[in-house]
Structure of Exosome complex exonuclease RRP44 homolog A:
Amino acid sequence: MLQNRSYVKRTRGGKITKVVREHYLRHDIYCGTPVCKVCDTSQARLSASASTILILDTNVVLNQIDLIENSAIDDVVVLSIVLEEVKNRNLSVYNRLRALCSNSLRNFFVFSNEHHKDTYVTDMSGESKNDRNDRAIRVAAQWYQTHLAGSVRILLITNDRENKRKAIEEGISAETVESYVRSLSRPDLLDLLVHPASEDVIMEGVEDLRPSKRKIIYPEHKPLSEITTGIRCGIYHQGKLRVNRYNPFEAYVGSQSLSDEIIIYGRANMNRAFDGDIVAVQLLPRDEWNEEKSLAIADEEDEEEEGVHLVPGSADDAPSTTAQSQDSAGETCPVSSRPSGRVVGVIKRNWHSYCGSLEPMAKPAGSGGVAHALFVSKDRRIPKIRIQTRQLENLLDKRITVAVDSWDRLSRYPSGHYVRTIGQIGDKDTETEVVLIENDINTRPFSAQVLGCLPPLPWFVSSEDLENPVREDLRQLRVFSVDPPGCKDIDDALHCTALPNGNFEVGVHIADVTNFVHSGTPLDDEASKRGTSVYLVDRRIDMLPKPLTEDICSLRADVERLAFSVIWEMTSEAEIICTRYTKSVIKSSAALSYVEAQARMDDSRLTDPVTSDLRNMNTLAKIMRSRRIERGALTLASAEVKFQIDTETHDPLDIGMYQIREANQMVEEFMLAANVSVAEKILKHYPLCSLLRRHPTPTREMLEPLLRTAAAVGLNLDVSSSKALADSLDHAVGDDPYFNKLIRILATRCMTQAVYFCSGDLSPPEYLHYGLAAPLYTHFTSPIRRYADVIVHRLLAASLGIQKLPTVFQDGPQLNSIAENLNYRHRNAQMASRASVELHTLIFFKSRPTDTEARVVRLRSNGFFVFVPKFGIEGPVYLTPRGEKGSGEWFVDEQQQRIRKMDGSISYSVLQTVRIHLEIVEPQPNRPKLELKLL
């Protein structure tokens, strides 16, 4: 059946046009209920034993998704009109709802009410879109009641007062969320309820969580129309709020309109904005801007609202008390008289579930079994959240997750609701799960649909693979891999063969993941969402299922595997004569660890073919590395930590700095070369849709902290180009053997973040990878671990005519969305890795108080930050007694980068060596931290 829908719209030129769209209606859309006597029940998703089928309206889904995800809520019909409206209003909730609908363990059924001839509703004159949608939901509910002829109760769940009234008038059973949950006799589920503050929403039995004194605490947010006008006129500035992880009362908003960061001091000026919110900021009068000399390290215990604006703290670049693997992660330090401002409105919220614990209370407030409690996030940047709970006693010693519902201007704290219990506070598995949740790492098992895309095991290279004309048989080559010890997901291997003409044939062979991960399949969709594998200290969360990562695609020794190869002919001076790309079949001769490869190269007694190949490759790699540095590539450093883990308890036995060997650098050099070669190839064929990786040039302001530190120790760093900076760092040497590495670590901290992007979105000069001094770069060499590499493999295969380019590459907005997700997932994986290191650092030092040497790396008015070379740890050392901020006892000399007592008796300078004591303390309940004290 064909239904025409028409509407009018205004064109860009101002003309009014009528648009007519054809809308197809069907009568054979199934209801999804196995007890139905009319429909085909082979695809039924609802349970045969269901006594009640729920139909949810849009706002219930948007506001109550935490409740809906609970297994107690089941046998739900999700109307297509609700699904579409949720998608348009909140993509995160939409994805969670889709996951429920596709979960074979849950009874959720999507009913296409907009395409069923009996449930489709036509537009009515004068009816708003919202009213039409509500009417469509009621019509669908009524159809289900009639269709199932009373064999199952159909219940519409809505908190909308008017929608409920009309439903009951039309003979439809309807209840509020709270009413239905109470009928389940599950008091714990009531904790999951969200109570949106709206006159049109029915809230039953809701107690006011706000202070009894109705004093206005925060300014009212400006309406969006005023914000938009203000931004256009330059009165307001838009940007993302980043709260200082060392001081929750200090935040930064990066403003493109000012080309600078605006500092926000105090919760009053933050005006209910959360870390990650997109906000509108108004600058304060210039005489209220703070000088850097007023900056201090915030006290860990200082969490109260009073004193918020009295505790300006360190910059957001202040590193955590742990190792920081930077990978070009930028950090911006404050300079004198930087703009200060206040938040006047929130443009886009970044609220999500937060992990933490409830603050112990002497006498919990509340009545009728409902207690009011304050939730304290593990992330200090998040304010305390006020919740109601009926299970306080059971939750006080647990890590839990809480979601924010609202933040009224009359309330000191935001209001939220309990979501779920993670586990016992202090338990390592619980705290690891907290790390994963906080960084939005997907740890769910792969679904049956995803696993169904895998070839059966055991898998072998077939005769069809060997006879494939586009795949070259390279099994005769002496291929080997070099990886970290214990590596099972081996996605790269190498070969190096001396040629009769004195040149070398060098190959980089990468696991041919796209032979098994096909575009548009459930496996591909899942990998796209996960974006990257995540490496914690004691575990790995895979992007792809283990049969692929550790077996089918892993380039293990002595087994035939499919690869995508980049092969060069090189002179003995590592000059590339020619490059070719081919799908291949290889058989690795050896799977070596970095230590084993290094030992082979260093042992002059060994002359076997693999060792000779390693030495030849290392010789070429050194020349390539030298040439790359000569072009301006930076040799930076990061404080990477390596733990020795107990194989039974999985607790850390030892901790130390990660050692980089020549073998590591050799592999890195050829992986970089392969990535550059592939970038050139795909961009030549696909100039508008290639996925590349860029590293933006840092601004002078970003490098200012490095320059001041260098100047204070007599170094004059030239930062006019990457080449100039690289040369300056090479000359930054002294009597201290660790001095140069420390300067390089500080330089790394001033870099911007490297990001993925679509080539059609930027001009070629913007493609530059500053750190590598490469005009073009991409990721090709780790498709087992990174989805970016999967995309690049498809681009390279299409450029060679091996396969067609998937249609997604013709969709610019979707490509951008993929690139943004890859950047988000890559960053989160980094943060999760660092948080895992921090957790294991706490576990290691819990029973091991230690005295050691440290280096001063940054000064503040009440102390300084130090770096501990032996353990790769960084953190604050206080010089003034806690709680005596700005006592005036110490004076910071910015020019000389020195902090000294006012009487001149003691002073400390940047990069100076000091002795410190490391010990685990718990200044606040359930928030253990590693304390660094000056000896």
The mean pLDDT is 83.
